[in-house]
From TrEMBL:
Classification via InterPro entries: MnmC-like_methylTransf, SAM-dependent_MTases_sf, tRNA_MNMC2
Source organism of the structure: Bizionia hallyeonensis
Name of the gene encoding the protein in the UniProt record: mnmD
Listed SUPFAM superfamilies: S-adenosyl-L-methionine-dependent methyltransferases (SSF53335)
Name of this protein: tRNA (5-methylaminomethyl-2-thiouridine)(34)-methyltransferase MnmD
Domain MnmC-like methyltransferase: start-end pairs: 146-224
CDD domains linked: AdoMet_MTases
Gene3D superfamilies cross-referenced by the UniProt entry: Vaccinia Virus protein VP39 (3.40.50.150)
Lineage, broadest ranks: Bacteria, Pseudomonadati, Bacteroidota, Flavobacteriia, Flavobacteriales
Length: 231
């Protein structure tokens, strides 16, 4: 499918898939969306709510690595140890990565080198990218995830249900539910009623929260501490 780089409303770039009229990140601001959905509503809420100084994160849709670099910088700032697993079925091309300007805009002391490292380390191997951040990239389909009670937090950043509805169904969310520890949290930019109902059907407690720029709402789903009766 034909793809090209576009600039979003906050000046950060993303990838446009022309055949789908779909983007890897919000056209209203790629960095703004990532900070709102995954850092503020996910990372910060989980660290505060569970009183953690170490955090295991699963990202569904590793894509451009934007969520990973923002999380790395946040982990260093807060001195929280993060074990991060990014799942991606179709890795982004090196030629596309070279056109993204996230490191320039995020302005971390070593953001450029760290962003490059995120994309040059080998797949399937855990690598320490800083004192506070370990990354494992896994190239596989979301349907093949088999983790059980492993993660505190899931960033669910798949392409939208309009273009890939099969990724927003009960079987997928059951895999997400199983992968989370009790009291674990899943955050996503989506607020579709069908998505919320699929989450609830597998046992999640789901909240509608204010969305990032350009979206009225988003969803946050929590796996109950006592969860066997929830299904």
């Amino acid at each position: 499918m034909k793809r090209h780089i576009i600039t979003t409303a906050d000046g950060s770039k993303t990838i446009q898939i022309d055949d789908w009229n779909e983007q890897y990140h919000s056209i209203h601001g790629a960095i703004q969306e990532a900070n709102h959905v995954f850092i503020k509503t996910g990372f910060e809420a989980v660290i505060s709510g569970l009183q953690l100084n170490s955090l295991s994160i699963l990202e569904i849709g590793f894509g451009t690595g934007l969520n990973a670099i923002i999380t790395l910088l946040k982990a260093e700032k807060e001195q929280v140890h993060v074990d991060y697993v990014g799942i991606e079925a179709y890795p982004v091309l090196t030629s596309e990565i070279s056109q993204l300007n996230y490191a320039e805009l995020l302005k971390g002391d070593s953001a450029e080198a760290q962003f490059k490292a995120i994309h040059t380390i080998s797949w399937e191997i855990k690598v320490s990218l800083s004192k506070f951040f370990q990354l494992t990239k896994q190239e596989k389909k979301f349907q093949d995830i088999t983790n059980i009670n492993q993660f505190h937090l899931i960033y669910f950043d798949a392409f939208g249900a309009r273009v890939q509805p099969e990724l927003w169904t009960e079987p997928i969310f059951e895999k997400m539910y199983n992968a989370l520890k009790p009291k674990g949290v899943l955050v996503t930019y989506s607020a579709k009623g069908s998505v919320r109902r699929a989450m609830q059907a597998v046992g999640f407690v789901v909240e509608r929260l204010p969305g990032p720029p350009g979206k009225r709402e988003m969803l946050r789903a929590t796996k109950p501490e006592t969860f066997n009766d929830a299904k």
